[in-house]
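Lab notes, practical 5.
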Amino acid sequence: MIKVGIIGSTGYAGGELVRILTGHKEAEIVWYGSRSYVDKRYAEVYQNMFQVVDAVCMDDNMEELARKADVIFTATPQGLCASLVNEDILSKTKIIDLSADFRIKDVSVYEKWYGIEHKSPQYIKEAVYGLCEINREDVRRARLVANPGCYTTCSILTAYPLAREGMIDMSTLIVDAKSGTSGAGRGAKLPNLFCEVNENMKAYGVASHRHTPEIEEQLGYASGEKVVINFTPHLVPMNRGILATEYASLKKEVSYADVKAIYDKYYQDEKFIRVLDKDVLPETKWVEGSNYVDINFKIDTRTNRIIMMGAIDNLVKGAAGQAVQNMNLMFGLDESEGLNLVPLFP
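Output from the prediction step:
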């Protein structure tokens, strides 16, 4: 059995890690870390875990945890993992970090967009960007994985095949994305109160959202060129889900069959990516509670642009599910172990 420790187990992503890992045949959670709830029973924090999890929350002592766990998930705010990790810890355990600390390869870009000093830049080069469908072989060999963000997972996978094949003009790419409120975390914040969110939609982080450089960097690797995008996220009054709608100019005239063949080339063997049938558009409700990414596209011949659409559950494929998928790869397991989750409906 893989012994698992979770730092940040009482946040939304951490709670989703617990939910998924309780059904994992090869993993055992040995540490429920939570700075806010030390010594409190986990099932008192999340009542859905009553008589499922019989454990008490512990602190974030990564050095002690590294002696007990084969892998540590850090579902924590930006900066914490980078401030805790060191060579002694990495010599004893593997780390899957759900924050942005090791996603961006240029430390100056990270510090600019996140507004904090990076505490362990020496590990940025080593860290593997854990987008499994793209970096699978590197993840298998990694001891430190940077789990991608939710907006970024959806945005990158939706455009990746066309970026990789040089089908779109990357300088024209626009990403318009909507997210449920769980993406903002479990902390009490005025903009996330029910009366602020209900019966409302709003854009936020316009031209400044911190997932922008992550999307640009990864699509830059795919296309082989510097990528600068417009990325605009929106908050919608639902618990879970991300829908990304992306627009780009085509470099040449293409047919539906041409584009579908490209998506199939990259994704037809990917268990968790579903390229939908023609004219069936992605919806968040058809991926909720699952690790699936639903993708489709429409060609607008009038404007010579293509509209790419993707939907994910931000807490599963956008966070905890992808983290478990990375763990499975790192330990040589079936990539889908613990993740055969049929989407919930209604």
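Observations recorded by the TA: The chain has two domains: 2-126, 151-314. The radius of gyration is 20 Å.
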